[in-house]
Amino acid sequence: MALPEIKALLFDVFGTVVDWRSSISRQAAEFGVKHGVSANWDIFADEWRDGYSSGMAKVNAGDDRWKIVDEIHRDRLNLLLEKYEFPEIPEAEISEFNKAWHRLDGWPDSTDGLTRLKSKFVIASLSNGNVALLTNMAKYTNLPWDAVLSAQLAGKYKPHPTAYQTAASLLGLETNEVLMVAAHSGDLHGARAAGLRAALVTRPDEYGDPEKADLVSEPEFEYFAKDFHDLADQLGCS
Fold it and tell me: What average pLDDT does the segment 176-180 reach?
């Protein structure tokens, strides 16, 4: 049977649409200067991000209560502030710094590329980030979503199939009418297992080392692109 026409594109956000590592490193360096702390802020960003994956895995496994990503980030930040020997800081200031994840810069092609894709398809986020985080990020970096969807709405984090299936259902679509776009093969394997189609878009600079990025497509992925403009060309967008 022929596959139905693609009607909507869902996008992973951290790393696929926005450059989280450089953005967090920059904001952490500013925070460090303010409080008299010196460090390798790229490594700080990596260590903060590591808490994101492990925190979500605990939630999905039932080893922790449901927490939104802002809470998971804050749990990790508390540990890092102690590890990097920050002085005592007022709660309001720590809370604001934790929202550094709401202020991430897009990749150079993100806004224009998404706008092209939006001319033909419904486009929406599908991130593990919570709705408030994703909404603020979209405002900050001018991301033209038709809808802000999050794993928060499903109560399960990607790559759990419920996260992908709930997003398709909220758009009123069958899973095979939806193309998941991500820079991470693991996310796309989860999407394919849930019935979605898949597009790998490469982001060689995400981790500061191309050897750590997913740069080779796999047979089960229907599309493989170097950036959003390349994907837009392949999908026939103006």
Answer: 98
Q: How far is CA 161 from CA 42, 58, 59, 151, 165, in A?
A: 32, 16, 15, 10, 6
Torsion angle (degrees, nearest 10) of CA 151, 155, 161, 165: -70
Domain count, the chain: 2
In terms of Cβ atoms closer than 10 Å to its own Cβ (0-12, 13-18, 19+), residue 186 is exposed
Q: Quick one: pLDDT at residue 113?
A: 98
pLDDT tens-digit map of 98-129: 999 999 999 999 999 999 999 999 999 999 99
Residue 1 in domain: no
Q: Is the pLDDT of residue 2 over 70?
A: no
| Cα distance between residue 128 and residue 64, in whole Å | 16
Claim to verify: residue 137 and residue 158 sit in the same structural domain: yes
Residue 136 lies in a domain: yes
Record the pTM: 0.96
What is the three-state SS of 135-149?
A: HHHHHHHCCCCCEEE
Same domain, 12 and 128: yes
Residue 1: pLDDT above 70?
no
Segments forming the whole domain that contains residue 52? 20-102
Q: Amino acid letter at 114?
A: L
CA dist 86 and 64 (Å) reads: 27
Task: Examine the fold and report which residue of 60, 75, 102 is the final residue of a domain before the chain moves on.
Answer: 102
Asked whether residue 111 falls in the same domain as residue 42, the answer is no
